[in-house]
Recover the amino acids of this structure.
């Protein structure tokens, strides 16, 4: 449908200009307080607009965006960041509270699956109604009907009521109709996600073609790779403001960075909660799990089948009081890249004189796969002990475990730390109490990311021309 | 308001397609299908005829059943149209919230769909007249004028109420009751002549009563509608249409948020 808000004749079709646009919504709770009342409306009619700030929330806050004809713009952001409101403002479904929206040319919008379809009617009838809604004449729809149906792959179902369609069929019909109405601007809100691989492929071709013809595309999605593939430009909305805009790769990286930071904070919160919740004295859980542990290899990487939840046990002669993971520059961190270095810092407190002390470290993947385990005695590292004859009381110390390169693939991992005797009798064992995550730039398979590179040395032709290629991770 | 009229013209294809779809959808899935659009008013007429003609033995009007017929058809258009139109936007769902759809089309479609139903029943009415030996007169030519007049009134009312109903859903319920009262205030079950002369002036506050009179004149009494009454109702209709559009435009931008 062409509900173009043509303000000026000068702008070429396909351009979109949002000038300091804000959109606020009345909070619609079922509590009487904020709900529209007859009285409130009468007051509003009589005494002018009554804008109660408290009852409103801002979906978009003074946004200015210009989209040139032929540009394809990807809109990314977390749920509730205003992406759909943005599209609805462009399409004219919403009017801005302040600022102006001017759009030139015919718009097709796929805001929601099957919006505008009448479930009782057949695909055929809906194509005609939808076509008329998009501003086509009956004749024009007649001409395009076959192409629309063929594109949607619905030849066999076009005379069935659309209420019997699957969501994929809804989407294909909607998309096919939208693309066949010659819009200057196509707005898509995440609906393509329900298409199968084959259809998505064709969507891709169609959209490429659409762009080649100099049409404008605005595209809301959580599939960042398609933004990178399809869009000349991306904007990143967060809480109703533009956080980033420009070259898609850059904006996506910015966005991912922030998401990671938020995740990191969340992990930190979980870890803090874990160390606060953990039983202070390890004795309570004393002997039994330790026996289970007795046949383990040094390093105490435990069988996940046997031990699932987080736990802490040991006799408490030596207590581990705090565990921190730090990044290269010494900052506390819970999220690492594959290539990052890390330091595990463990504070301990020797409460009773002990004759021997071994510290162990283990890494488990979140699904229980033991990734790595070691301890000081295994590596022949002598843990310095205090002179118990010289002084009495508690002796505090900190050890650091340096990891030059994390080398793991993207996942979440548990860190186990332990203080025990050389026969593995635990003083204090922290199992699955600390979590960290690894982000990896490439979707490698497996667990471990060794330092690696590729090279070729081959002679395919008679001239034995040497081809060499190298790529490093 | 000009914008509304302009858009109605621009989307005339859409409107006619939707009217067709609604007519089609209303009885889709039922065995008798479209026949219901005749059967429904006929049943109503039969019941009123039974009660008033045979039980109450109301004998002020010759051909009482025909009298009911001529008055009830336009009333059904009016009452069903206004009730459907009022709920049309608030019940418009994703059409309003998720699609670029010109909202005022919906009440318009409700009004026109019910008008179509009325028009389809007119041959039935004329056949019934012929059966009773009441000859249609040239005054029938005034029918389109009266339809346009009442249509304007109904459309204005519908647009305003549909827009208000998005904000205050009570309206459709209040209206349901009001319509029943309104029915009895119109000379559909009784002729105007039964109203005491000194109270007859009150009809001036009820345009629908005046319209009902006009239909009676056209179909049964073989008279052309009273010109003064016609002009008066047309003026009322124009004002209503204007007000309806004003109210509608006042609220239209909030539909997508509130539906």
């Amino acid at each position: 449908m062409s509900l173009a808000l043509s303000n000026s004749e000068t702008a070429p079709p396909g351009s979109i200009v949002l000038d300091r646009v804000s959109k606020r919504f009345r909070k619609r709770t079922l509590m009487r307080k904020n709900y529209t009342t007859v009285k409130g409306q009468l007051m509003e009619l009589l005494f002018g607009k009554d804008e109660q700030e408290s009852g409103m929330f801002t979906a978009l806050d003074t946004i200015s965006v210009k989209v040139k004809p032929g540009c394809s713009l990807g809109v990314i952001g977390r749920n509730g960041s205003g992406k759909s409101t943005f599209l609805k403002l462009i399409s004219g479904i919403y009017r801005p509270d302040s600022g102006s929206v001017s759009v030139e040319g015919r718009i097709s919008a796929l805001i929601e699956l099957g919006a505008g379809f009448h479930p009782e009617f057949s695909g055929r009838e809906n194509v005609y109604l939808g076509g008329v809604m998009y501003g086509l004449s009956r004749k024009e729809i007649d001409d395009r009907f076959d192409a629309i149906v063929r594109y949607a792959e619905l030849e066999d179902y076009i005379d069935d009521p659309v209420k019997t369609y699957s969501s994929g069929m809804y989407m294909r019909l909607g998309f096919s109709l939208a693309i066949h109405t010659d819009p200057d601007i196509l707005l898509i809100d995440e609906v393509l996600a329900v298409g199968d691989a084959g259809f998505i492929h064709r969507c891709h071709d169609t959209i490429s073609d659409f762009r080649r013809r100099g049409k404008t595309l605005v595209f809301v999605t959580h599939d960042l790779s398609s933004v990178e593939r399809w869009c000349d430009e991306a904007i990143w909305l967060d809480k109703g403001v533009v956080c980033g805009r420009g070259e898609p790769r850059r904006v996506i990286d910015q966005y991912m960075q922030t998401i990671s930071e938020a995740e990191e904070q969340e992990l930190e919160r979980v870890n803090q909660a874990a160390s606060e919740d953990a039983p202070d004295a390890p004795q309570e859980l004393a002997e039994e799990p330790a026996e289970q542990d007795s046949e383990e290899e040094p390093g105490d990487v435990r069988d996940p089948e046997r031990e699932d939840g987080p736990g802490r046990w040991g006799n408490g002669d030596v207590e581990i009081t705090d565990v921190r993971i730090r990044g290269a520059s010494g900052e506390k961190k819970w999220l690492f890249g594959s290539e990052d270095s890390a330091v595990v810092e463990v504070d301990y407190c020797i409460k009773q004189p002990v004759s021997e002390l071994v510290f162990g470290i283990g890494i488990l993947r979140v699904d229980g796969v033991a990734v790595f385990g070691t301890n000081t005695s295994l590596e022949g590292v002598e843990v310095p002990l205090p002179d118990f004859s010289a002084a009495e009381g508690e002796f505090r110390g900190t050890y650091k475990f340096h990891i030059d390169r994390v080398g793991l693939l993207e996942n979440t991992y548990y860190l186990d730390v332990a203080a025990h005797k050389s026969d593995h009798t635990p003083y204090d064992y922290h199992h699955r109490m600390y979590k960290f995550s690894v982000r990896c730039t490439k979707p490698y398979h497996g667990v471990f990311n060794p330092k690696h590179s590729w090279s070729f040395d081959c002679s395919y032709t008679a001239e034995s021309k040497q081809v060499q290629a190298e790529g490093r991770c | 308001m000009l914008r509304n009229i302009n858009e109605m013209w621009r989307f005339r294809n859409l409107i006619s397609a939707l009217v067709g779809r609604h007519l089609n959808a209303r009885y889709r899935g039922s065995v008798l299908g479209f026949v219901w659009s005749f059967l429904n008013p006929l049943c109503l007429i039969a019941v009123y005829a039974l009660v008033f003609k045979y039980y109450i033995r109301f004998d002020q009007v010759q051909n009482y059943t025909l009298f009911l017929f001529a008055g009830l058809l336009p009333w059904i258009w009016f009452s069903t149209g206004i009730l459907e139109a009022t709920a049309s936007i608030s019940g418009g769902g994703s059409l309003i919230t998720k699609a670029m759809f010109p909202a005022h089309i919906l009440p318009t479609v409700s009004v026109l769909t019910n008008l179509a139903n009325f028009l389809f029943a007119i041959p039935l009415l004329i056949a019934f007249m012929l059966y009773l030996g009441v000859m249609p007169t040239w005054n029938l030519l005034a029918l389109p004028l009266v339809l346009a007049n009442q249509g304007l009134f109904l459309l204005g009312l519908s647009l305003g109420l549909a827009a208000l109903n998005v904000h205050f859903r009570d309206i459709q319920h209040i209206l349901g009751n009001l319509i029943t009262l309104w029915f009895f205030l119109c000379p559909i079950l009784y002729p105007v002549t039964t109203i005491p002369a000194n109270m007859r002036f009150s009809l001036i506050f009820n345009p629908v009563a005046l319209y009902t009179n006009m239909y009676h004149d056209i179909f049964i009494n073989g008279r052309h509608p009273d010109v003064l009454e016609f002009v008066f109702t047309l003026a009322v209709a124009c004002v209503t249409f204007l007000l309806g559009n004003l109210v509608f435009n006042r609220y239209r931008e909030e539909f997508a948020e509130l539906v």
